[in-house]
Write a structure and sequence with these properties.
Elements lengths: L11 H4 E3 L7 E6 L12 H5 L3 E6 L16 H14 L4 E7 L1 H15 L8 E4 L18 H11 L4 H4 L2 H20 L12 E6 L7 H4 L12 E4 L5 H4 L1 H19 L3
Parallel strand pairs: 2-3, 2-4, 4-5, 5-6, 6-7
Antiparallel strand pairs: 1-3
Helix pairs in contact: 3-4
Length: 262
C-alpha cells in the first residue's frame, strides 16, 4: 500500500518517547533495531547534552506498547510515524536508524517529503544496507519459535537471560517477528534522492550486512556519503555509545553555529 492524501493528525508522544526532559534546539528521532525500545539507548541523552533532545520510536508490540497488536504494513507504519514527527517538528530535527530502523527512518523521511511536511536535516543509517541494494539472505520471521530464537542468539544484541525465559519470550516474540517481517517484506520504490546528508555508520565485524551494499545509501541522497567504520559487530552502537553521541552532537552544534548571524 503506497500512501496518498493527507497524513492524519497524530499525537507525537504516543509514537516517540522522550528519554529525558531536555530543552534543546534539535530533536533526534531514533528508530531502533527489531524489538528495540527506549530502554536500549536510555544513556544516549547524556552524550547529546543540551544540543539535542532524544526521541525514541515506540512501535506497537514492543517496549511500553508490548500489549498492542504489532503492525505488519511498513507503509502504514511510516505514515503514522511521519504524522508523529510532524507533530513534533517545531524545531530542526534529525533521524537515526539502526538496522531495520534505518530503513524505517528512510521511508518516514520520504513520506514527509511526499506530503509536503517538514523533513529531517540529517539521517544516520547504522548497520544497514542501502534500501535499493540490500539483500535478504534468509527469511526468518516465520520460523518456528525454537529456530527463531536461535537466530536471535546468533544475531546478538539481546540479553541471553531474556532469550532463556519462555514466558517472557512468548510476550516479546510477536513484536520482534513483525519487525523482521517488515524488513523481509519491504519493496523498494524508486523516488528522487533526498536532499539531505546521509551518514553511514557500521561495525567492521558485522556479519549481518555487506559493507559494499551499505554504500548503496549513496543512491538516496544528493550529498556526499560519509562512512564511519567502528570496531564491533551489528550492535557496535552499544560499544561506542559516548563516542557516537558526541559525534552527532558536534555536527548539530557546528550546523547551529553556522546558522547564527554574525
Amino acid at each position: 500500500m503506497r500512501d496518498g492524501g493527507n497524513v492524519p493528525e497524530n499525537a507525537g508522544d504516543q509514537w516517540f518517547s522522550s528519554a529525558a526532559a531536555v530543552t534543546a534546539p534539535v530533536r533526534l528521532f531514533w528508530f531502533p533495531h527489531s524489538g528495540g525500545n527506549s530502554a536500549v539507548i536510555a544513556g544516549w541523552q547524556s552524550g547529546l547534552g543540551s544540543t539535542a533532545e532524544l526521541r525514541v520510536a515506540q512501535l506497537p508490540g514492543c517496549g511500553p506498547r508490548l500489549i498492542e497488536q504489532p503492525v505488519h504494513d511498513l507503509d502504514y507504519l511510516a505514515a503514522k510515524l511521519a504524522a508523529a514527527v510532524a507533530a513534533l517538528a517545531d524545531r530542526k530535527f534529525a533521524f537515526l536508524g539502526h538496522s531495520i530502523g534505518a530503513l524505517l527512518a528512510f521511508e518516514v523521511a520520504r513520506t514527509l517529503r511526499r506530503r509536503g511536511l517538514p523533513q529531517p536535516e540529517w539521517l544516520w543509517a547504522c548497520a544497514a544496507e542501502g534500501p535499493s541494494t540490500r539483500r535478504i539472505r534468509r527469511k526468518v520471521a516465520g520460523l518456528p519459535t525454537e529456530e527463531f530464537i536461535e537466530v536471535l542468539v546468533d544475531l546478538g544484541g539481546t540479553d541471553p537471560e531474556v532469550l532463556a525465559e519462555p514466558e517472557l519470550m512468548e510476550l516479546l516474540l510477536p513484536g520482534i517477528r513483525a519487525n523482521f517481517g517488515l524488513y523481509e517484506g519491504y519493496v523498494y520504490h524508486p523516488e528522487p534522492p533526498l536532499e539531505l546528508p546521509i551518514r553511514v555508520l557500521r561495525g567492521e565485524a558485522d556479519h549481518i550486512i555487506d559493507g559494499k551494499l551499505a554504500a548503496g545509501w549513496a543512491l538516496e541522497t544528493t550529498r556526499p556519503l560519509p562512512e564511519r567504520v567502528f570496531s564491533g559487530d551489528h550492535f557496535f552502537l552499544q560499544q561506542h555509545e559516548a563516542e557516537i553521541a558526541q559525534l552527532i552532537a558536534a555536527e548539530f552544534a557546528a550546523d547551529l553555529s553556522a546558522c547564527r548571524p554574525a
